[in-house]
């Protein structure tokens, strides 16, 4: 099935999407965390996420300013908050706030490779270089509102970069970019 979400064409990818059950938040939904997500950058030409993981074992990387959100539409400019425009790997971490119990649906738009883990489990993965496209849908079943761990591995090889995390909350509606206030560290 091909559809449109905003101005980006959705074409199902060969990536992985999973289902996660999140039972224990790391903090209550009322807990105040620092806004945004921490990020560490790695300068390297990458073609697979395992190459980024391997490189992270050898190099410490460079800490960047916290990302206010995961809303980086397609650009030819700098990758996320890095100064580079190509050959960037990023390890992004912190917490995502689920304000209500229920099932959340997720997709990630990326150019190039990405993996999203929530509550320590792989939710979304699109591992190879590609033009901007959406991952398959993954779901998170949340038993209690609160802050849950989120970790994203991302790389941009050449050309354009994009990284946007979308969700549908249990309250319904259509896919929207996860708002900045849902991220903390």
Protein described:
With 185 residues, the chain is mainly beta. It has one domain: Sandwich (Jelly Rolls). Helix content is 5%, strand content 52%. It is built from 1 helix and 17 strands. Strands 3, 5, 6, 8, 10, 11, 14 and 17 form an 8-stranded antiparallel sheet that branches. The longest helix is centred in the N-terminal third of the chain and has 10 residues, at 49-58.
Task: Please summarize what this structure is.
With 185 residues, this protein is mainly β. The protein contains one helix and 17 strands.
Give a topology summary.
Elements: E1 3-5, E2 8-10, E3 16-17, E4 19-22, E5 37-43, H1 49-58, E6 62-67, E7 71-75, E8 88-98, E9 102-111, E10 114-118, E11 121-126, E12 133-134, E13 138-142, E14 146-156, E15 161-169, E16 172-177, E17 183-184
Parallel strand pairs: 4-13
Antiparallel strand pairs: 1-2, 3-11, 5-6, 5-8, 7-15, 8-14, 8-17, 9-12, 9-13, 9-15, 10-11, 10-14, 15-16
Strand-and-helix sequence, N→C?
EEEEEHEEEEEEEEEEEE
Whole-number total of structural domains: 1
Q: What's the CATH class label?
A: Mainly Beta
CATH architecture: Sandwich
Number of strands: 17
Helical fraction equals under 10%
Largest sheet: 8 strands, antiparallel
Q: Which term fits the overall shape?
A: globular
- Summing up helix and strand content along with how strands pair, one would put the structural category as mainly beta
The share of residues in extended strands comes to: over 45%
Radius of gyration: 15 Å
CATH topology: Jelly Rolls
